[in-house]
Amino acid sequence: MKTIVASYNITPNQPTPKDPLWLSDSDQIGVLGHVSILYIYRSAKEHNNNTVERMKNSLSKLLSYYYPVAGRLRLSKSGRMELDCNAKGVTLLEAETTNTFVDYGDDFSPSEFTDELIPKLDDTQQPIEEIPLLLVQLTRFHSGGDCEGLAIGVLLSHPLTDATGIIDFMNRWAKLSRGEELDPNEIPFLDRTLLKFPDILLEKPREVNTREISKLDTSTLQHIPTSKLLDQWKKPVVPQTPEDDGIDKPKKRSGAMLKLTSSQVERLKNKAMANNHQSSKQGSRPNYSRFEVVAAHIWRCASKALGDDLTQVRFSVNFRNRMNPPLPHNYFGNAVANVATPEGDIISNPLGFAAHKIREASHAVTDEFVKSQLNVSRLGQVQLDNIRAFFMRQGHRVNIPYALNHNVLFLTSFTNMPVYESDFGWGKPVHFGLASRSPADRAAILPSPDGDGVIVALFFQTALMQLFKNYFYEDMYLSLL
């Protein structure tokens, strides 16, 4: 049982710019609400009464660099979202739970138990313009009167940034909490107009350079109160139902954490290269990445468990380094393109076939692709309707770039992110992962905390979970498929 001990509103420790921040199309496509991540720390001796005070002070200092995080979302006159940099602050909760590590199965896969480790947010009870963009809950586990460890549950507004930005934010908060200072290259780059493409740039994307981008018009549209904007829109927004989308009615789902050692990942790589149908066409065996083979393996296991060869994988590709010129490495915002794998006979074909499909989808994200996608959306009327529904607290939909009558597996990869570097002064986390349960089949590929291989955080249909696990560990040892 969880008890909230205290709640704090944390604001930047010095004055910050007040100008509204323009949000790119990439910030406004897909999930408009908050997303969650969870850190678990097992060490207990370093936790003391100064822990919360140190985290409060360091967070306040960090917000002076990441000042948009302390602001609020609002609507512009055009119906797009923008960030109101009003420095109203973020929420930090201090909590305790009577549960122990054992109660969470020691793997902290998403469940009703992990729900209590994440801040609760009901965005139907207050205007969107008043909801904090960041909520953090620090929860102590107690066992026999002692602190067994603690959890840091993070709830962040998705339009603020993608997974790369969230991880960078947390690692820099941890660094300040340890009493260190940020290096110049760790200061976030906040100007999102780098993804604001005039038509002249879209015609010749390869000629874009930093000097041209610096000349772009960075002015924002005039803001008027959201309440007045909503009053002007007479047409009611009706959120899509499963029947409208062509999606099956919700099925019961449960979570699991599945480990693949480095040797098992290497076995998958060798298997994908050995039986890849592209080998004969290209004259050499493709060297697939860890992500490509693990994603392909998850895809095939899900397809077999579902008995559906039309299952597709949807995942996001970080395009920071795929732009010409590349985005700054410390760019804070959403810089991902959503892609879906092409159809294919996944079940009967070997692992290399699926790995090649994953590669095809990923490699399609180029400078031209990103600019064309952001230009096409601009934003489209469908997404503008979604934004309006979101602000009217009617929920929102997620744009899906593929046929909606297919089984879809959502995939997220953290394999190249420093997710275990968030040491606040009491050691690195023993667990990092997603905390919220998903209404759809979803998998996240995480680096293993011990450095040996990866962890697959799976949220899958309960009735088929054991079947998926069987395929997951048995298929890699089958010689033919």
Automatic annotation (TrEMBL):
The gene is LOC100804886. Pfam families: Transferase (PF02458). This is Uncharacterized protein. Residues 237-256 are annotated as: Disordered. Belongs to the plant acyltransferase family. GO terms for molecular function: acyltransferase activity, transferring groups other than amino-acyl groups. InterPro entries: CAT-like_dom_sf (IPR023213), Plant_Fungal_Acyltransferase (IPR050317). It comes from the Eukaryota. It comes from Glycine max (Soybean).
